[in-house]
Amino acid sequence: MVLACNELKGSMLNRSNANEIMMCLNSFMTIKCIAFDLDNTLWAVNPVIAKAESSFYEWLKSYYPKITQKYSGEALVQHRMDYMYAKPEMHHNLTDLRKSWMRALADEIGYDHDYVEPGFDVFWSARNDVTFYDGALEMLEKLSKKYSLGVITNGNADVNKIGVGHLFDFSLSSEAAGVSKPHKDIFHKAMELSDHDFHQTVYVGDDPERDIIGAQQVGMKAIWYNPTLMPWPGGQTPTAVIQHHHQLEDKIVNL
Ligand SMILES: [Mg+2]
Question: Which of 46, 72, 201, 222 is found 20 to 30 A from 249 (Cα to Cα)?
Fold first, then answer.
């Protein structure tokens, strides 16, 4: 596209048509696509995970009581976390990691593995029962009419399961990408799903390293969602910062 613009620019220079040259350049500079992080950017993740763990525990209590007789809810979460910390090579795929832990738990207690898929579905349904931050859903609905929207997430929330998939043109998880943010490959793979390139895309997220520095290293602009006004921890600073979702559109227009 840059080559096409240069050719157009050259022909227009001959006609001394400065306005059209600027329009051409602007068409490549203007943001066309907004890609979002999900957890702690569009909703708070801790409450929804706590609710999902509780739903899973209640389900175990009804159908696999030997597990809940041995472990309290809190102890079972710690059991899972200990397992997950020992498997860093699986951290990009939280679905497989949780199912792997469930199989290990079944082996320990003496159940077979048949409970893994229905048990995971209980957790996952509750994990996608999110409560959007005030104004976040309205912001997405409004921006989806003007921009191409996308998702790049390290988690296993699913905008289609949540019921807002129609607002997004693409969604890529670390599970599908094979690597987690801030790895460059997840951003490159996301752009393969998008109709736009890095320079036309802005990424919005709450995590300085995974979201902001990750996106900027591949040439995206990046807006830091920082509702609690945390100090920037260092490294390349964000393109812009917002405290509230309603500020996002103005920031993007002025990039
Ligand atoms: Mg996040």
Answer: 46
What is the whole-number distance in angstroms between the Cα of residue 28 and the centre of ligand 1?
Answer: 28
d(CA 187, CA 198): 9
For 51-127, which CATH class?
mainly alpha
Query: Token pair for residue 113?
Result: 């593995």
Expressed in angstroms and rounded, the spacing between residue 83 Cα and the centre of ligand 1 is: 22
Distance (angstroms) between ligand 1 centre and the Cα of 58 equals 27
Q: What is the CA radius of gyration of the chain?
A: 22
Strand ranges in the chain using DSSP code E only, listed in sequence order:
33-36, 148-153, 170-173, 201-205, 221-225, 240-242
Checking if the pLDDT of 72 tops 90, the result is yes
Q: Where in the chain is the domain with CATH 1.20.120?
A: 51-127
Spacing, Cα 122 to ligand 1 middle (Å): 23
In angstroms, what is the span from residue 75 Cα to ligand 1's centroid? 26
Query: CATH for 31-44+132-253, among 3.40.50.1000, 3.40.50.920, 3.50.50.60, 3.90.1150.10?
Result: 3.40.50.1000
pLDDT digits (tens, 9 = 90+) for 45-56: 999 999 999 999
pTM score, two decimals? 0.87
